[in-house]
Write a structure and sequence with these properties.
Layout lengths: L8 H8 L1 H11 L5 H14 L12 H14 L10 E7 L6 E7 L1 H11 L4 E8 L3 E3 L8 E3 L11 E9 L5 E7 H14 L11 H16 L1 H6 L4 H8 L6
Helix pairs in contact: 1-3, 1-4, 2-4, 5-9, 6-7
């Protein structure tokens, strides 16, 4: 006799989001396929079984909300793009795990490029043994080093962001060392088995911090070119352990 196996709540939540997800993508004019996106979101949730917050046991309503928020922003869960991620947080009142949508720095760049504010950009770190001159917010900084790995070029000195804009213009921003070290301290203190501030991903996390700092600094300019409040909040709100 065959026994019926109930599907996990998170699978039901993704299925129940279908109509809202499709409506949001159509209203926003975004070329996102529900089936593909739900599949990629499913993969992220399944992968969380091996992390410190298991999203498979997350509040289903929060999964629906996070998944539909991705549609509202017009960003894809495609792992090759690395735009957005489903992350877990503990709800203070209930103690349950809830799912939130986290916009990675590549997702931030995609949102800004969509408005025409920029056409690309990069963030970099400066160390004590580098040659570095920051000139102005509209000129490329001078940054030279001998090619050694970051950990061999002395202590961290600062970071910077370069946004390439239409017409060959650039917009740059210096990121103070204190901002980077505070983000690293907060991330490391958050702990967890999937803490990406540990090991080989620390440089990437510093770059994410640089971009968040820049998007906060450029908030009003991004708003002026059409970036919505929801997009700006997603691009400038950090998650402590990611």
């Amino acid at each position: 006799m065959n026994q019926m196996i109930n599907e996990p709540d998170f699978v039901t939540a993704l299925k129940d989001s279908r109509e809202t997800y499709i409506d949001l993508t159509q209203n926003g004019g975004f070329n996102l396929n529900y089936g593909l996106e739900a599949g990629w979101a499913h993969q992220q949730i399944e992968a969380s079984r091996y992390q410190n917050l298991d999203l498979t046991c997350s509040e289903p309503g929060s999964i629906m909300q996070a998944f539909c928020e991705a549609a509202r922003l017009g960003l894809s869960f495609d792992p090759r793009k690395k735009h957005i991620y489903l992350m877990g947080q503990k709800d203070v009142q209930s103690g349950r795990t809830i799912t939130i949508l986290y916009v990675g720095y590549k997702g931030m760049i995609a949102l800004a490029c969509r408005t025409g504010f920029m056409i690309g950009g990069h963030a970099d770190l400066v160390f004590e043994e580098d040659t570095f001159t920051y000139r102005s917010g509209t000129q490329l900084p001078v940054h030279e080093h001998d090619g050694r790995p970051n950990h061999e070029r002395g202590r961290l000195k600062c970071g910077y962001v370069v946004a390439h804009q239409p017409g060959g213009m650039v917009k740059t921003l210096l990121v103070p060392k204190e901002v980077l070290l505070e983000a690293a301290s907060n991330g490391l203190n958050a702990g967890g088995s999937n803490n990406t501030w540990c090991g080989p991903y620390m440089e990437m996390m510093y770059q994410k911090t640089c971009w968040r700092y820049a998007f906060n600094a450029w908030y009003s300019e991004l708003e002026a070119v059409g970036m919505t409040q929801a997009q700006l909040e997603s691009a400038t709100t950090a998650v402590s352990y990611q």
